[in-house]
Amino acid sequence: MSPVPGLGWRASIAGSRAEPFSGGSENCPEPACTLGSWGLLFPLSGFLGGYMLINFVACQLFALLAAFWFRIYLGPSHASSAVRHAFATLFGIYFAVFCFGWYSIHLFVLVMMNYGIMNMASIPNIHRYSFVVAMGYLTLCHISRIYIFHYGILTTDFSGPLMIITQKITTLACQLHDGIGRQAEELTAEQNRLAVKTRPSLLEYLSYLLNFMSIIAGPCSNYKDYIAFIEGRHVHMKLLEVNWKQKGYDRLPDPSPTGAVMYKLCITLVSLILFLTLTKNFPMAYIIDNEFLDKTPFLSRLGYLYVVTQAAKPKYYFAWTLGKSGYIIYFCR
User: Fold this and answer.
1) Using an 8 Å Cβ cutoff, are 71 and 333 in contact?
2) Cys-Cys link to 123, which of 90, 181, 189, 296 (CB 3.0-4.6 A)?
3) 264: number of CA atoms within 13 Å, CB side?
4) Among residues 57, 56, 48, 1, which one has the least CA distance to residue 20?
5) Dihedral of the CA atoms 163, 167, 169, 175 (nearest 10)?
6) 75-133 pLDDT, tens per residue?
7) Residues 166-184: pLDDT tens digits?
8) What is the mean pLDDT of residues 268-286?
């Protein structure tokens, strides 16, 4: 099962063309009609192999442009922290709804449930309760999407961003427990650096979990690093760690993300080409075909399984690298 939303479809067993998973009518290929703005981009789905992939790519590319806009017009010198939090959250919510439609309600339900836990639970137990609720809700969603709604193991949906949010919720809960519930001498140097000393406000909490550059495919950042970015302290903090004066600078430099972003985008393009090429020739759906299961020798099945799992890897490289390239623009300020 892919943890990256928007990249899965069922390949055609009879032919070589990759097709969206079956179900529903011609005008509304269920469950596509519940997966956000599928109709807007559906005409392009044949080119990349599925409407969910189109939605994902569209959101990530728009996030790149939004990151540039955010960097230029909503930098720390142009906007307050509250404004930056608000815009990052609203963009993230829009992307979630665009990609997943009403299914995105699962993301918001989990976020708000754990916000209640963070504010009402005792500090000694906050990390335990947060983990149980977040992981439990994620598990129920996985079970329901496969065994109740029968979307199949080869499809992807809201469970991808739900996994990202689960990571962030548990990370923040543990760091809050370290910052309030434990003594400094009990922590490692890294735990001390990341420990959160006060409970986040609702806006800070929503911004951290739902910001537009990480809601779809990550990455999962630490809460204190994210807040330092919003407040404009993150680059200075890193430069101070490397003794920038000894590097010959007379003032703190303003690093440019251009080179790093172009490098990441090249990797993204290569990964996408490899993924589309390999999965067309080695469809993963073939491993559950009755003829393959009944008539193919065991060693041949094992060999094909190895090949298709390797062919699926560029999908993850594509998604994560594309998300990381936007994150570089977003954070490099």
Assistant:
1) yes
2) 181
3) 18
4) 48
5) 180
6) 888 889 999 999 999 999 999 988 888 889 999 999 999 999 999 999 999 999 999 99
7) 999 999 999 999 999 999 8
8) 87
Our measurement of the distance from residue 310's CA atom to the centroid of its chain's CA atoms, rounded to an integer in Å, reads 21
The shares of helix, strand and coil residues in the chain, as percent rounded to the nearest 5, are 70, 0, 30
3-state secondary structure of 257: coil
One-letter amino acid at 40 equals L
For the residues of 210-241, what is the DSSP string, one character each?
H-TTTTTT-----HHHHHHHHTT-HHHHHHHH
Q: 3-class DSSP state for residue 182?
A: coil
Hey, what long-range contacts does 186-189 have (CB within 8 A, 24 or more apart)? none
Note the pTM of the prediction, 2 decimals: 0.77
Q: How far apart are CA 196 and CA 188, in angstroms?
A: 14
What is the three-class DSSP state of 19? strand
Residue 307: DSSP 8-state: H
Q: Residue 10, SS3?
A: strand
pLDDT tens column, 40-67: 555 555 555 555 567 778 888 888 888 8
Q: Which of 220, 36, 200, 232 is nearest to 114 (CA)?
A: 200
Query: Would strands 18-19 and 10-11 be described as parallel, antiparallel, or unpaired?
Result: antiparallel
CB-CB neighbours of 279 under 10 Å: 21
